[in-house]
Write a structure and sequence with these properties.
This protein has about 120 residues and is α+β, with helices and mostly antiparallel strands. Helices cover about 30% and strands about 30% of the residues. The strands form two sheets. A five-stranded antiparallel β-sheet has the order 1-2-8-7-4, with no helix packed on it. The longest helix has 14 residues.
Length: about 120
């Protein structure tokens, strides 16, 4: 998730897209949908698996990345730029962020996971 003013851009991490391998389909929420923190907002399907995408925040879906319907591989090729999934307006960003893993902790988590493989 990237905070952009009063909105948040939601996507998957590079580690997540790499773990899924070749993404072939993305199911996104409807614009206007009200979601709770950690509620599934869609799925990402690869040749290997189907994975739910959970919202890191509670809020309202303002926009979805329509480019993914024709080019789901953008999630693989550009997870932090062109491969975003949705833009949301948070209900209480400060509260929700406090319960999320910080970037440094996530990097350490991924490092530990990849060392075990």
């Amino acid at each position: 998730m990237r905070v952009e003013g009063d909105k948040c851009r939601i996507g998957v991490t590079d580690y997540a897209q790499d773990s899924l391998h070749e993404i072939v389909y993305v199911d996104l929420p409807k614009v206007g949908a009200k979601v709770s923190q950690m509620q599934s907002i869609g799925t990402v399907e690869s040749v290997k698996a189907v994975a739910d995408v959970y919202s890191p925040i509670a809020g309202v879906v303002l926009e979805v990345n329509g480019d993914l319907s024709d080019a789901p591989e953008l999630v693989n090729n550009s997870p932090y730029d062109k491969g975003w999934l949705t833009i949301m307006r948070p209900d209480d960003l400060k509260k929700d962020i406090s319960s999320l893993m910080k970037p440094v902790a996530y990097q350490e988590f991924v490092r530990k996971i990849t060392q075990k493989k």
